[in-house]
Please model this.
Amino acid sequence: MVRAQMKRVIDTSEILGTVETPEGICEVCASATAGFDEEAGKLVLRLEAFLRPAGLLEKERHFRAAWLPADKTVTESVVREESGEMAREIFHSWVRKVREAAPQLRRA
Model:
C-alpha cells in the first residue's frame, strides 16, 4: 500500500482510567490512527493499547501489560463519506475491549 494514497481520517486517543502496576500508578490508554486508501476504497485503522505513568513529573513513556489486548490493524471496505463514522465506531469498540481487559477498570 502506498502511503501517498492514504487520507487521514482520525488520530485519537483516550485515557480510560488508572491502575496500580509494579511501575507505579499508570493510565490505561487506547488510541487509533485511521486513514482512507482512496485507490482501494478501504479504511485502515491502527489500534493500540498501552500504559503510561500517571505522574506529571515523570517522562512520558508507553509500555504494555500482559492483560492488555494486542495492538491490531483493522481494514474495512467503505465509501469515503462513511469512513469517519466507521472509524469512530471501531475506535469506541476498541475502547470497550481495552477497558474490559483492565482488571481494575472492569465494571461490576
